Amino acid sequence: MPDNELSHYAVSVVGADRPGIVAGVAKALYTLGCNIADSSCTMLAGEFAMILIISHPKPFTKTQLFEELKPVSERMAMTLSIRHLPRGEEKRRETGGEICRITVYGADQPGIVYRVTDNLASRRINIIDLKSKLIEMGSEPVYVMLLEALLPDTITPEDVEYLLEGLKQELKVEINVRIVTPVEF
Amino acid sequence: MAIQPILKYPHPLLKRMAHRVKGFDSAISNLMQDLIDTMHAGPGSVGVAAPQIGVCLRACVVDVSGNLRGKEDNHGLLCMLNPEILSRRGSAVMREGCMSVPDYTGDVERSTEIIVRFFDGLDHQERLVAASGFEAVAIQHELDHLDGILFIDRVINISTELFSRKKYR
Is the link from the previous residue into B43 a cis peptide, with omega within 30 of 0? Predict the structure, then answer.
């Protein structure tokens, strides 16, 4: 079905982890006739978080979707939110720059995520994936952050290393940058 | 010869074990030329395997000499019939994509050094090639096509290792 005959929504469901969350949400979406496109579902601490991009043939409304999913999320004591995607947002925008994986880790302290991402944002480097975890290692917790960023054409991975070098010294964290731009065979 | 259309998954041929080439004839010469032409037609393509153009035979071409990652260390155009990897060493992860699985990429672990034996599709001589780095990865990717294996079958997720909640024993 062409995209202009579909309504697209971003749905997020978050709540205490337990078996059956994905099945419960997926069943409701299936019954409703929704297609699940991209999704990311993961456990964060004791919470399970689902983010899904879904589509449904028009006519269809956010209210209909909310009313069908609400009983499911309430039954599992989960928070539900839905956003209608305006035309153009249902597809990822590709650019020609390199993709970098940036690994940051070190003794936990306030501001690691903020300082690193603020530096990247100041150069219009777009974060496309980010995962972080606080690792309790005895008396000194360690913070680990892995992110992937899409560089503008004018910025090289070496520029990113240089950009973050000061921060590395200041926060006393390790920061590594490597290219992960896919190769098509 | 001609640029052939690339089959896309879920075409069943892409998941089938390809047959050994049993001899050299004009059909094989034409196939090799089609593979070369199709590879050169793909933007940035460094290899094509026969199943990708609808021929269920153990034949493929690889040429990484025009790629930034492979231009320093390569054997030029490799036209391979009945290729076999005789030995492997090392491993590295590279993010791969494939013309037969468009719009999807994933991290794949491959050997960094391989020795591959094959019959050259152009001069019909047996060859042994010791490939490393990017060329070794490209060869392994194309050889997988001959066994009906797509890169998706080999995708690993590094983050599950780093973020594993399992206790190490």
Answer: no
Task: Work out how many CB contacts closer than 8 A connect A with B.
Answer: 43
Q: What residues of B are in contact with residue A181 (Cβ under 8 Å)?
A: 95
pLDDT higher than threshold 70 for residue B158? no
Question: CB atoms < 10 A from the CB of A1, how many?
Answer: 9
Do A115 and A153 fall into the same domain? yes
What residues in chain A have their Cβ under 8 A from chain B's Cβ atoms? 99, 131, 133, 144, 146, 180-185
CA distances from B61 to A57, A84, A185, B37, B126 (A): 43, 46, 11, 10, 15
Domain boundary among A24, A52, A84: A84
Q: A50: pLDDT confidence band, cut at 50, 70 and 90?
A: very high
Residue-wise pLDDT for A88-121, tens only, equals: 888 877 666 889 999 999 999 999 999 999 999 9
